[in-house]
Amino acid sequence: MESPCILVCSVDEATGYCFGCGRTRAEIGAWLSMTPAERRAVMQALPARLDTIERKPRRETRRARLARERAGKAG
């Protein structure tokens, strides 16, 4: 199942959107029970939502850290 989660689970209080993926708490909670069409509709809205978040998280995401570590081992 496709998910926009990037393992940065912190919600912006001003917008109600997750800093990592742009979903609301309700959407995150309902994700597994949504139909594929509902999930696609939410995912189409995410880029515009993320643009509305003013403060970005300062910590490195787990996904980014793993990618950096893999790149370091490969090169």
From TrEMBL:
Sequence segments annotated as region (Disordered): 53-75
Taxonomic superkingdom: Bacteria
InterPro entries, per database record: DUF1289
Any Pfam family hit: DUF1289
Biased composition (Basic and acidic residues): 66-75
Annotated protein name in UniProt: DUF1289 domain-containing protein
Organism listed in the record: Chelativorans salis
Lineage of origin: Bacteria, Pseudomonadati, Pseudomonadota, Alphaproteobacteria, Hyphomicrobiales
